[in-house]
Specification:
- The protein is of the alpha/beta class.
- It has three domains: 2-56, no CATH class; 63-252, no CATH class; 255-413, 3-Layer(aba) Sandwich (Rossmann fold), CATH 3.40.50.
- Helix content is 29%, strand content 13%.
- The protein has 14 helices and 15 strands.
- The strands form four sheets. Strands 4-3-5-8-9-10 form a six-stranded parallel beta sheet, with helices on one face. Strands 12-11-13-14-15 form a five-stranded parallel beta sheet.
- The longest helix has 24 residues, at 33-56.
- The radius of gyration is 27 Å and the shape is globular.
């Protein structure tokens, strides 16, 4: 038997059987039955293999919801190990399948004309979409998908109203996208959206408002309540804005900017700033709401330590502030409107010990990042003791915390890249999704972390 593959289409083949004569001049039809039987089994096996391969690679037409970008391989990382952690490779991400709706450009790519869209702290919605489009987890066949990703950018085009971001357009834009995908393909209606994924990368996640009272009043849109939300907002207590299936993700920090800083100031270099914070610190409430930003926490930090030489506190903006973080021993990460802050990722990425001041915060990727071993948590009510606490840590176990913090895998787990890298933020999301399916039992660190 000879098998010929068509040069025009690899998915098609044909088999041509030839009558072969043996050395006594007998034709193949005169050979014993068992040889002909084995030959037909081999022919059937090859036929089934090529047919299955053809189905697996099929890309169905979906009118305006088409997908066209190929799938590269995941890149490996260098095997750098520390004394405190053991990295295990996942056994099942290769089995995960995510279908990505290709929506009309008004839902996503049109926003990219504003350069800020891909670079501000809410840009994880863009970064995740880009990485998934080129991930091995992507499937072009929705009939075999485990999850469906809905790429709607709602944080790119917010405007500042009364001192805080306004994203009132988010609900209408998302509702329109759901109406489109549910009318053109059957998969939303089949599961009532329970296997569909959205990104809500701003203050109070799927509640789509920066002020907590308003966010709670509005709640999560009804049409999203069955879906999976990738959100930066997370707390350890019951809260209406996380009352939905969710995965807490890190805010976006440019990996290029981080590497640029580290190229001139290594993570193990000299740190001449003891305590660092640069950001909004109100002396009195300035917003029309009459509320203090950060629930007065930042105000109290400024009042208590504004003249303390150990504390490098700055209220004005400075584009090069990452160069200050890499010089600092402790970096304050107080809450803003919401508990989370980009300073969490910035501090970890640049090797400054995060001092988390946000009661009840739920931190991203608790099984991948040993938060209790790389950071400090100070209660909002203990601001007055902050100096004493940091002096004590500096005199006792600072070197241990820094050694854990400077493990390259910790930084990698909180940063997004254009291509999924093993262990990076998008990879962690895929792993969390696989765990929801019960097809992955891998834990990045052998010791559990305390993310409260």
């Amino acid at each position: 038997m000879e098998v010929f593959g068509s040069a025009r289409n690899r998915k098609q083949f044909y088999a041509r059987m030839k009558l072969l004569r043996n050395r006594h001049g007998k034709t193949e039809t005169q050979t014993p039955f068992r040889f002909r039987y084995l030959k037909w089994i081999l022919w059937f096996s090859l036929s089934f293999y090529f047919f299955a391969t053809s189905l697996g690679n099929h890309r169905p037409a979906t009118t305006s919801l088409k997908t066209i970008i190929p799938q590269p391989q995941l890149r490996s990382v260098s095997p750098v190990l520390s004394d405190t952690a053991v990295l295990r490779q996942p056994r099942s991400l290769k089995d995960l399948r995510v279908y990505i709706y290709e929506l009309p450009s008004k839902y996503n790519s049109d926003w990219l004309s504003n350069a800020r869209c891909s670079n501000h702290l809410f840009a994880s919605e863009v970064a995740i979409h880009k990485a998934l489009m080129k991930s091995d987890a992507r499937t072009f066949d929705p009939s075999v998908a485990d999850f469906f990703f809905v790429p709607v950018y709602v944080s790119c085009n917010f405007s500042a109203v009364n001192g805080f971001p306004a994203i009132g357009h988010a609900r209408g834009l998302l509702s329109s996208a759901v109406e489109l995908i549910s009318s053109e393909l059957p998969f939303w209606n089949r599961s009532n959206g329970s296997d569909h994924i959205f990104v809500a990368s701003h203050d109070f996640g799927a509640c789509f408002h920066a002020m907590e009272s308003k966010a709670v009043l509005d709640g999560i849109p009804e049409f999203m309540k069955n879906s999976i939300i990738l959100q930066t907002f997370g707390v350890t207590y019951r809260h209406p804005c996380q009352d939905v299936e969710n995965i807490v993700i890190p805010p976006y920090i440019s990996p290029e900017k981080v590497q640029s800083v580290l190229s001139t100031s290594p993570i193990t270099g000299r740190r001449d700033i003891f305590v660092f914070f640069r950001g909004k610190m109100e002396v009195r409430p300035k917003n029309v709401s009459g509320q203090f930003y950060s629930k007065r926490v930042r105000t109290e930090i400024l009042r208590k330590y504004g003249h303390d030489r150990r504390f490098y506190l700055r209220r004005n903006r400075f584009a090069g502030y990452l160069s200050e973080i890499v010089r600092s021993v402790f970096c304050l990460c107080p809450l803003g409107w919401a508990p989370w802050s980009p300073r969490l990722v910035e501090s970890v990425a640049l090797g400054c010990v995060p001092v988390i001041i946000a009661d009840g915060i739920r931190l991203p990727f608790g099984t991948a990042v040993p938060w209790s071993e790389i950071s400090l948590t100070v209660a909002e009510s203990d601001i007055g003791k902050l100096g004493t606490i940091l002096d004590y840590v500096a005199a006792t176990n600072l070197s241990t915390i820094q050694r854990n913090l400077w493990d390259p895998r910790v930084q990698r787990a909180l940063l997004y890249h254009d291509d999924v890298e093993v262990g990076d933020a998008t990879w962690q999301i895929l792993n969390a999704l696989s765990e929801k399916l019960g097809i992955s039992d891998q834990k990045i660190y052998t010791r559990p972390s305390n993310s409260s």
